[in-house]
């Protein structure tokens, strides 16, 4: 499809909708940051960036764009990793970051209604002093909640609490044709037709633009304790995770990490990790209403770890110790990025009992292909983040080896009954791997859904399942 590029007549229409020239960026006013996301390597400038403040503005823009066949790309903070918020066909970029207000805290229904531009870290700071808790915990705390909804973000607490989709009760959505619709609400149960709300979560801005969300909250646990557990080998560390889950003493988080990534983090933060002598670690978090309650849970888990060869059990039972460990864990992505000239990543998810096989495969690929690959991830839910490093390779050799590494890793994940993405999404960068990993009939269903929502394919084209 050939999309219309923005001209002066289109700009005048946008100005009449927005009525605030400072919220419309055009031409040289568009900062370089709007041409890419955090990592994917996909770059393309929009013709115009419009910073919306209301659902009505988004509705009018989409009605006009649909009529004129102008592509529209929704964008939050731009912290995605797969090019989902990159304007491949230029056109209009709708920036939702100014829609950053808390609208209602309903403590009777334990819900929070807010706009999509609210940052994840601001959400936590808003509800936790009130004794409430929003469990999804993606690593990038400066991401917007709209972006988290767009990708169905997961994070470290998914093993106990679930992912973003599990905490979205309702959504206000602008359809590509401009209509404003509401999916779900404050209700707990809903068997009223198809699960439209759940379809929107994880659709990466291809089916509609979220302008309001109703989130489920929980009472805030009064106490958290973390265990840092060194193991002689990564195989022993990761192999212990399914045994912990099987014991029914489910931690809030079960993370795995290797020594070389910890060393990168130490250099990046300029601070020592509590322990860096072992080759591999599990990092567990437990929460509850008292120290005694948590200790009763983690005692049995610690015993399992020691039986599987753990070298020690390091307990972080103060806020200061907890913060130092988890701050280091939160820095891993930036630390790895700082250790090389460029990198790309895979966000593969496999059954929990097969993550060891996948990690060992990535280790063997380093020698086979001639690339450094660093990994860490969520041992409790089978989601592995593997980062492929360019270092000093020429662009040509890098692209050849990167493509080969990606193909082999996604093929291995498929062999292990895994999926292309556990939480980062498909976007633009991973489409070909999705096409190879699932049945063509399923791709056809996805494309059919896209066509029903967006008959002119104006909203975020070339993403997820669309060529």
Automatic annotation (TrEMBL):
Protein name: Glycolate oxidase
Keywords (A to Z) from UniProt: FAD, Flavoprotein, Oxidoreductase
GO molecular function: FAD binding; oxidoreductase activity
Occurrences of domain FAD-binding PCMH-type (ranges): 42-220
Originating species: Propionispira arboris
Domain of life of the organism encoding this protein: Bacteria
Keyword Flavoprotein: yes
Cofactor: FAD
């Amino acid at each position: 499809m050939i999309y219309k590029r923005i001209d002066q007549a289109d700009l005048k229409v946008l100005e009449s909708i927005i009525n605030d020239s400072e919220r419309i960026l055009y031409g040289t006013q568009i900062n370089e940051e709007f041409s890419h996301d955090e990592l994917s390597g996909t770059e393309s400038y929009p013709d115009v960036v419009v910073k919306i403040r209301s659902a009505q503005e988004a509705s009018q823009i989409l009605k006009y764009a649909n009529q004129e066949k102008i592509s529209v790309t929704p964008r939050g903070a731009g912290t995605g990793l797969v090019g989902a918020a990159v304007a491949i066909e230029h056109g209009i970029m709708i920036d939702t970051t100014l829609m950053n207000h808390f609208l209602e805290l309903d403590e009777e229904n334990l819900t929070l209604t807010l706009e999509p531009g609210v940052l994840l870290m601001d959400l936590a700071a808003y509800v936790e002093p009130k004794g409430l808790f929003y469990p999804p915990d993606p690593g990038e705390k400066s991401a917007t909640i709209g972006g988290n909804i767009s990708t169905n973000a997961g994070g470290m607490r998914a093993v106990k609490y679930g992912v973003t989709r599990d905490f979205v009760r309702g959504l206000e959505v602008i359809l590509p044709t401009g209509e404003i619709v509401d999916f779900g609400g404050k209700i707990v149960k809903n068997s009223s037709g198809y699960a439209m709300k759940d379809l929107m979560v994880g659709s990466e801005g291809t089916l509609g633009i979220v302008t309001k969300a109703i989130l489920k909250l929980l009472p805030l646990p009064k106490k958290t304790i973390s265990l840092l557990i060194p193991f002689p080998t990564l195989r022993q560390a990761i192999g212990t995770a399914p045994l912990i889950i099987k014991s029914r003493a489910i931690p809030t988080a079960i993370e795995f990490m290797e020594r070389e990534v910890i060393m990168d983090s130490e250099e990046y933060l300029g601070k020592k990790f509590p322990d860096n002598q072992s080759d591999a670690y599990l990092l567990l978090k437990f929460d509850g209403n008292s120290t005694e309650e948590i200790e009763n849970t983690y005692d049995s888990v610690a015993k399992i770890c020691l039986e599987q060869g753990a070298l020690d059990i390091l307990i972080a039972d103060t806020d200061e110790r907890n913060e130092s460990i988890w701050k280091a864990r939160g820095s891993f992505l930036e630390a790895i990025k700082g250790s090389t000239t460029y990198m790309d990543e895979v966000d593969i998810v496999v059954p929990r009992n097969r993550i060891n096989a996948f990690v060992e495969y990535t280790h063997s690929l380093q020698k086979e292909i001639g690339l450094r690959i660093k990994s860490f991830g969520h041992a409790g839910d089978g989601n592995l983040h593997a980062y492929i490093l360019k270092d000093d390779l020429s662009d040509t050799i890098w692209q050849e080896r990167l493509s080969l590494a990606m193909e082999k890793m996604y093929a291995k994940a498929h062999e292990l009954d895994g999926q292309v993405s556990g939480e980062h999404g498909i976007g633009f960068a991973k489409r070909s791997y999705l096409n190879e990993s699932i049945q063509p009939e399923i791709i056809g269903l996805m494309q059919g859904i896209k066509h029903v929502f967006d008959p002119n394919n104006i909203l975020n084209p070339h993403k997820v399942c669309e060529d």
